[in-house]
Design goal:
The complex is a heterodimer of chains A (328) and B (169). Chain A is an alpha+beta fold and 328 residues long. Among the domains of chain A are: 47 residues, Uridine Diphospho-n-acetylenolpyruvylglucosamine Reductase, domain 2 (2-Layer Sandwich); 106 residues, CO dehydrogenase flavoprotein, C-terminal domain (Enolase-like, domain 1, 2-Layer Sandwich). Chain A has 13 helices and twelve strands. In chain A, helix 12 runs antiparallel to helix 13. Chain A is globular. The termini of chain A are far apart. Chain B has two domains: 73 residues, Ubiquitin-like (UB roll) (Roll); 91 residues, Orthogonal Bundle (DNA polymerase, domain 1). Helix content of chain B is 33%, strand content 11%. Classes of the chains: A alpha+beta (328), B alpha+beta (169). Chains A and B meet through helix 2, helix 3, helix 5 and helix 6 of A and strand 4, helix 3 and helix 4 of B.
Chain lengths: 328, 169
């Protein structure tokens, strides 16, 4: 690990001032950044600890939530309003990492965690366009069963690792951001980028910009929602495929739906096509399958991950079927 | 600002690269906390910070300034074994012992989480009161601590005994 300075920001304005220096990174829980620094995949010259940002989970009058960036993953997952109004979010967080890591990790940091592509981590032995732009990608022809089937580019086939972000993508969350040029808000589904020619850029954040909060709009259908994660072992593993879904059925017809996928792309994947295909259709297995197939029509699997296409299809059908059954 | 470790105030290291794990093992002569993978995968380095279980290998010591750290050495007050330490002995909850301090610190944190109602991913009803204390729940909640020499059943037995006893009190 290269030497670096460490300072604690008193709040957002202080963090942005300290973060203006080139080579500075914001530090939340450190569960990903400290590891990347130790592995040589990140080498900041200065860390600004931003855990003094808000730890409040504010319940809005309309039923929505404003979640401070320094809220720990465990605190969000256990919050009564999250469990009742957005159960898919509780389940997604609880499906991620281990209890120790969830106690450490902040939600702001969770949004900004980097891919677990092993070639990205292997600084000494592998080429990676995300780590070193223009270097090439050893994953495309390498061992790539964990990699993307949607939205990848010839430069990068990495997946986004977060479970929480998959639920936030489905829940129409927005991300509050502050920087030297002011404040802005970005829909969660637009925060993360597809790799295109610049896989080194994970998000649309400008240098020095800071995530201060996540806003969840009121979404009554999310009170019947869930998250299912399929992985190589029963616990403490990254997703092969995951599905976050909320479903509202009225008289046997899909009135409204939210659907997002994890483990399949460079960003949490909102399944817009499947949602479009489902609204107004009968809440039947045939309709669920047709919607999944619409979403996966453009999937382009790699050498080792064709199984993900079928796995995603089956998981979508199963999750929607469970939600439809629970509502009968 | 000092770091409080097992009740004593310690100055934070000048080099920000020093992990909490290396601070307690190498600089404070508290070798009970173990270095397994040093990358957050095995849980051998688990300690309690302000009562919550965390990984000391992934924590920079400077992040703990103003906070209170408890290691396995801090659990046995006045030389008397913590109830979980005794339960691990009673149930053969270890063989080589390398994962044991992390397992025990993690279990202390886990029991506190259950007492305040934190659900797990396998909790059936997120809105319900009262959590299951089943083996499956303990296995899920302890999945961040690996044992590689076969004591897992004894570990779950030991934790289960203490959990059920505390729930009854």
């Amino acid at each position: 690990m290269n030497p670096f300075s460490y300072s604690r920001a008193a709040g957002a304005a202080d963090a942005i001032r300290l973060g203006a220096v080139a080579g500075t990174k914001y530090l939340g829980g450190g569960t990903n950044l400290v590891d990347l620094m130790r592995e040589g995949a990140e080498h900041p010259e200065a860390l600004v600890d931003v855990t003094a940002l808000s730890r409040e989970i504010e319940e809005r009058e309309d039923g929505g939530l404003m979640i401070g960036a320094a809220v720990r993953n465990t605190a969000l997952a256990e919050h009564r309003a999250v469990r009742q109004r957005y159960p898919m979010l509780s389940r997604a967080i609880l499906a991620g990492a281990s209890a120790q890591i969830r106690n450490m990790a902040t939600i702001g940091g969770n949004l900004l965690q980097r891919t677990r592509c092993t070639y990205f981590y292997d600084g000494e032995g592998s080429r990676c366009n995300k780590r070193e732009p223009g270097q090439g990608c050893d994953a495309i022809d390498g061992f790539n069963r964990n990699h993307a089937i949607l939205g990848a580019s010839p430069a990068c086939v990495a997946t986004h690792p977060s479970d929480m972000c998959v639920a936030l993508a489905a829940l129409d969350a927005s991300v509050h951001i502050e920087g030297r040029s002011g404040k802005r808000s970005v829909p969660l589904v637009e925060l993360h980028r597809l790799p295109d020619g610049r896989p080194d850029l994970d998000t649309v954040l400008e240098p020095g910009e800071l995530i201060t909060a996540i806003e969840l709009p009121a979404l009554p259908l999310a009170s019947r929602s869930t998250y299912r994660k399929v992985r190589d072992r029963a616990s403490y593993a990254f997703a092969l495929v995951s599905v976050a879904a909320a479903l509202e059925v009225e008289s046997g017809t899909v009135k409204d739906v939210r659907l997002a996928l994890g483990g399949v792309a460079h960003k949490p994947w909102r399944a817009w096509r499947a949602e479009e295909a489902l609204r107004g259709q009968p809440a039947s297995e045939d309709a669920f399958r047709a919607a999944a197939e619409a979403e996966l029509a453009d999937a382009s699997p790699l050498k080792d991950n064709a199984f993900k296409v079928e796995l995603a299809r089956r998981t979508i059908v199963a999750v929607l079927g469970d939600l439809a059954g629970a509502g009968r | 600002m000092a770091i409080t470790i097992n009740g004593s105030d310690v100055e934070a290291p000048g080099d920000a690269r020093v992990s909490l794990l290396d601070l307690v093992r190498d600089r404070l002569n508290l070798p009970g906390t173990k270095k397994g993978c040093n990358q957050g995968a095995c849980g051998a380095c688990t300690v309690l910070v302000d009562g919550e279980r965390v990984l000391s290998c992934m924590t920079l010591a400077v992040q703990c300034e103003g906070r209170s750290v408890t290691t396995i050495e801090g659990l046995a007050a006045g030389g008397a074994l913590h109830s979980l330490q005794q339960a691990f002995i009673d149930h053969d909850g270890f063989q080589c012992g390398y994962c044991t301090p992390g397992q025990i610190c993690s279990a202390v944190g886990m029991i506190a989480e259950i007492e305040r109602g934190v659900p797990s991913v396998i909790t059936a009803d997120l809105g319900g009161e009262g959590l299951s204390l089943s083996r499956e729940e303990i296995q899920e909640r302890m999945s961040g601590n690996l044992c590689r020499c076969g004591a897992h059943n004894g570990i779950i037995d030991a934790i289960s005994e203490i959990l059920v006893r505390e729930a009854a009190e």
